[in-house]
Amino acid sequence: MRAFSSSFSHVRALLLGILGCIGLGVILRDDAVAATSEITGFYSVAVPQGNSAWVCGLVSGVDFEGAATDVVADSGDGKALVSFEGPGWTVDAFVGWYAEAQSGASAGLAIDILSNTADTLKLDATPAGLTVGTVFVLRRHATLGSLLPDGGGFAPLNDSISLFTSAGLQKSFVFDDVAGTWVDSTLADASDVIIRPGQGFVIYAESPLTLTLGKGTVSYVKVTPTKVMAHAGVPNLMGALNPLSPTSSLGALGVTSSLQAFNDSVVTLTPGTLAQGGTYLSNGAQLIDGQGQSATATPLPAGASVVINVDATKGVTLAPVTTGP
Questions:
Q1: Low-confidence ranges of the chain (pLDDT < 50)
Q2: What residues does 164 pair with on adjacent strands?
């Protein structure tokens, strides 16, 4: 068994050193609600041989949407306790889900739900920036198992998907076709490993493959902005949640205002080698290249992940998807 091929073992070194195309599938329905368009479907990505960086353009559906009636700090650990008017939830039914504020300083950020009572969520955050009246939506986290329940066309125990932690550590996973689960380097079940909204990942493919996203419960188009936490000194892989277009651009990422001008950078990656394609800075109004020229229209394959480098940990907001004409 070759659970982790030597041909991608240098992925982390490449990203730390610097740091296909997409096709719309079948759209099943459009019920047009606030936080999710309720457009569901699937799309395919042409993954080249070697290493390439991608992001999933889909999320899970909204399981609850409502305005907070109370926001306080837990007396024990200071975590945020956010209450709602009589939802009647089952205790701890939302462990493994996340809450996303629709306004305020934390708008678009997926905040893990630690526990819940019949009407209150305990979030993995302090109450700072969370206020009474803020509308929250609850979604189940995407996981390897819910995003790629059948292995996604990966060569079993060979092709891999790699995620990077907030500390910059690489964790890689392969699909065990006998057990029907994703596993880590110890062959422990990794199907519940979370992939956060907007979080990029690296795919190693020994041969080119067509990867279809949206076969599981992660099949909804998100039409509101998405905030991703970027950490200093590590490669932050992220990309726009936009499965509706075969092409995109650096400007369409919408990250310009989140970056410190002439300091934080956006790095594109070359599919197959993960070599640096280009480095771009924000001038406060737009992304620019090394000659100071606008890079807004620089082509970026839809679904591709870029690397965001920052000097201080911050939230980076990605542009929402436009579904209307």
A1: 1-13, 16-33
A2: 170
